[in-house]
Design goal:
A 6-stranded mixed β-sheet has the order 7-4-6-5-9-8. The chain folds into 4 domains: about 160 residues, 3-Layer(aba) Sandwich (Molybdenum Cofactor Biosythetic Enzyme, Chain A), CATH 3.40.980; about 55 residues, Molybdopterin biosynthesis moea protein, domain 2; about 80 residues, Molybdopterin biosynthesis moea protein, domain 3 (Molybdopterin biosynthesis moeA protein, domain 3, Beta Complex), CATH 2.170.190.11; about 70 residues, MoeA, C-terminal, domain IV (Beta-clip), CATH 2.40.340. By secondary structure, it is of the alpha/beta class. The model has no long low-confidence stretch (mean pLDDT about 95). About 20% of the residues lie in helices and about 30% in strands. The protein is elongated and about 95 Å long. It starts with a helix and ends with a strand. The structure holds adenosine monophosphate and magnesium ion.
């Protein structure tokens, strides 16, 4: 049986590299960048006025002038005017500094009467005050974003500011999520006492979409080998990635590994030394498609999706791996099986800035409702059985931005 690290490495080694596509920049949120983004111009592109007020020559102020005839008005977007000595230009935030001006006095500190702006007698101006100097943020050609970054709203601003209407990102893989099980009934359909609401499929689709993998479809298949063969076979023809849940354990109706084998999906591993999620199966389809077969128990399915499927899709999209995170246990935990334990937790931080994990014990791997208030799970090492309060453990958030 593979360890969690071996399972992760086997998956990453088998992942393809998704294509690059060019899309409109305003659709790029959540996608993985495949290009560098360089500054189109110096930033700011000109000496930018930071206050509404008047632009003056500091030398005039320094030699005692407090009353300035208003020469003209200049708004943001107007071409820079030329300021005469001893006068002022009424100026707006975002305007380009008039030629000859080197000081802005805020509108709150002047009184305007009959075309004269008079500066408050107690006001102390400084040279170059309220001027955001050209290129003081960065110069033209500076690399502002690098390939491998997931595009955030701030990145959308940068891409737009660099004048790019389009941007290169990783293509979406087409993902088919398959829920297997005779007992499963989707929301909205009548249900009998012995049946179960199908929750894994919608949750897996939601988790992948939350991580920016938008092209996910869902299918439900009953535990019938012939039907599984036909339907999974057709999904293998169409999809770039398959994520199944259920049917991978040792029961009489757990046909998934056998059917996948018959369809030419090469098994990379079956079972990982972890709880939840020990029965997890992974293989590679005839066209090189990754095929994840997650256990059906809802806590297992969600943990395995977050632990293995999300990082694998991110890697294939070319996303730079994020820094590992850690959290400190708030209570003693004992876990006897010789397995890695993924323990769901709520996160709080203390006044010392430490991230604390409050364990949430699920009532078996079927108890997915207890996950509702959790932020992720901590990883407790296979070699250890006792984890006293204060132990620091790797943290996996359900959603890591
Ligand atoms: P299996 O892995 O197919 O043996 O399923 C293990 C347990 O998880 C059973 O109790 C199933 O009813 C439940 N289960 C399997 N698939 C789903 C699903 N899509 N949604 C909710 N529960 C499921
Ligand atoms: Mg089943």
């Amino acid at each position: 049986m593979l360890t969690t690290i071996e399972a992760r490495d086997a998956i990453l080694a088998a992942m393809p590299v998704f294509d690059t596509v060019t899309i409109p920049a305003d659709k790029a949120i959540g996608r993985v960048l495949r290009q560098s983004v360089f500054a189109e111009r110096d930033q700011p592109p000109f000496d930018r006025v930071m206050m509404d007020g008047i632009a003056i020559r500091f030398a005039d102020f320094d030699s005692g002038t407090r009353r300035y005839p208003i020469q003209s008005m200049q708004a943001a977007g107007d071409p820079a005017q030329s300021l005469d000595a001893g006068k002022c230009i009424e100026i707006m935030t975002g305007a380009s500094l008039p030629d000859g001006a080197d000081c802005i006095v805020p509108v709150e500190r002047i009184a305007v009467k009959e075309g004269i702006a008079e500066i408050d007698s107690d006001y102390g101006a400084e040279k170059r005050q309220f001027i955001h100097a050209r290129a003081s943020d960065h110069t033209q050609g500076t690399e502002l974003l690098s390939p491998g970054k997931r595009v955030s709203p701030m990145d959308v601003a940068i891409i737009a500011s660099c004048g790019l209407p389009e941007v290169e990102v990783a293509d979406h893989p087409s993902v088919v999520v398959v829920s297997t099980g005779n007992e499963l009934v989707p929301a909205g359909m009548p249900i009998e006492a012995q049946q179960i609401r199908m929750s894994n499929g919608p949750a897996i689709v939601a988790m992948l979409k939350q991580h920016g993998h938008d092209d996910c479809k869902h299918d439900h298949l009953v535990d019938d080998p012939a039907l599984l063969r036909k339907s999974i076979g057709s999904h293998l023809d169409d999809a770039d990635v398959l994520v199944l849940s259920g049917g991978v354990s040792m029961g009489h109706a757990d046909y998934v590994p056998k059917v996948l084998d018959e369809l030419g999906v090469r098994v990379e591993f079956h079972k990982v030394s972890q709880r939840p999620g020990k029965p997890m199966w992974f293989g590679v389809g005839p066209k090189g498609q990754p095929v994840f077969a997650l256990p059906g128990n809802p806590v297992s399915a969600l943990v395995c999706c977050r632990q293995y499927v999300v990082p694998a899709l991110d890697a294939a999209a070319g996303r730079t791996a994020s820094q590992p995170e850690f959290a400190t246990l708030t209570e003693d935990v004992t876990f006897k099986p010789k397995l890695t334990c993924f323990l769901p937790a709520k996160l709080v931080s203390n006044a010392a800035g430490q991230m604390l994990a409050m364990p949430v014990h699920t009532n078996t791997s079927g108890d997915f409702a207890s996950l509702a208030g959790t932020d992720g799970y901590v990883e407790l090492a296979l070699e250890q059985t006792k984890f006293p309060a204060g132990t620091t453990a790797p943290l996996h958030r359900w959603f890591a931005a």
